[in-house]
Specification:
By secondary structure, this protein is of the alpha/beta class. The protein folds into two domains: about 1-170 and about 225-250, Rossmann fold; about 190-220 and about 250-320, UDP-galactose 4-epimerase, domain 1, CATH 3.90.25. About 40% of the residues lie in helices and about 20% in strands. β5, α5 (about 140-155) and β6 (about 160-165) form a beta-alpha-beta unit. α1 packs across α7 (about 225-240) and α4 runs parallel beside α5 (about 140-155). The structure holds nicotinamide-adenine-dinucleotide (NAD). Nicotinamide-adenine-dinucleotide binds near residues 13, 32, 117 and 182.
Amino acid sequence: MKILLTGGAGYIGSHAAIALLDGGHKVTVIDNLSTGNKKLIPPSANFVNCNINDVTTISQILQKEKFDALMHFAGYIEVEESVSNPKKYFDNNTKNSKILFDTCIKNNLKNIIFSSTAAAYGNPANSEPIKESTDLKPINPYGESKIQSEIYLKENSQCNFIILRYFNVAGADPKMRSGLISKKATHLIKIASEVAVGKRKDITIFGNDYPTPDGTAIRDYIHVSDLADVHVKAVEYLVSKQQSNIINCGYGKGFSVKDVLKIVNQVNDKPISIKNGDRRAGDPSMLVSNVSKLHSLFDWQPKYNNLSFIVKTSIDWEKKLLNY
Ligand SMILES: NC(=O)c1ccc[n+]([C@@H]2O[C@H](COP(=O)([O-])OP(=O)(O)OC[C@H]3O[C@@H](n4cnc5c(N)ncnc54)[C@H](O)[C@@H]3O)[C@@H](O)[C@H]2O)c1
């Protein structure tokens, strides 16, 4: 298949590009490098440096080449920044996404895979694993900006879509072809890995008083290469079946912050320095996915469903970044 992939210079988009290319598909990456890094784009992908709202350039690409599907990863992802500057998030994640979807549909590219997020669910009232049918109640502009794009797809009868709602994405390509570069990253495993390689002095646990067994927040961590494989399955499904759907992406198992840090200390040569801090505003106590739909719809089995392996690839990538 031929895939048009936005955000391929970013963390998850670059891993999806690798998975597609490894699977024998062709990939054209669109990225404006606003938060991405050109080095993450696989050398065998075509690359066009432009904004997703550049109707002229993207129409030209679509008229020149016939793609089977769009995979749309490009966007801004910092929750705290979205609170201080919501307009930036609605402009890029919602407005620009709509322009991109319209450009594709107008040029007859009607199969769309969209990166959404567990932030769409907000702070669910009960501690059950979250189903796709759970009410969407985002508690920050980032989550809302992604839901607005979801709604646009759901209300647009001219396209087929698969919306993938990611839980906590972590780790790096086991062959070290890509990983997370962002300097502003707030991801727990990324920060712990930076401490492990000496880039940071310590890591803070935000909140010890959540209603969880050890008092720290629980999340569902999925290895980025497994998530990338889900995209390959999703696009194969969408193109062959032409059926729209919304699917949670996680492993369906929760780990607390303390669980994660314990594993970091097992994987790392020496223990990392850990501080205790207050809760951060808006952090839910527990976000774990119900993955029944993911497993029933796609013929997909995770390869890296092992937190030690996730942490190891993350630390190895951080070591690689020291000389990047
Ligand atoms: N990282 C996570 O844990 C996570 C969790 C849930 C959902 N998501 C979603 O996954 C997607 C990818 O996230 P990521 O972590 O890879 O982020 P990232 O910041 O690493 O990558 C985003 C990429 O999009 C590009 N980009 C942004 N705006 C653009 C525009 N207007 N035109 C062209 N390119 C643009 C950036 O340069 C960057 O390369 C996002 O849509 C995000 O909402 C991420």
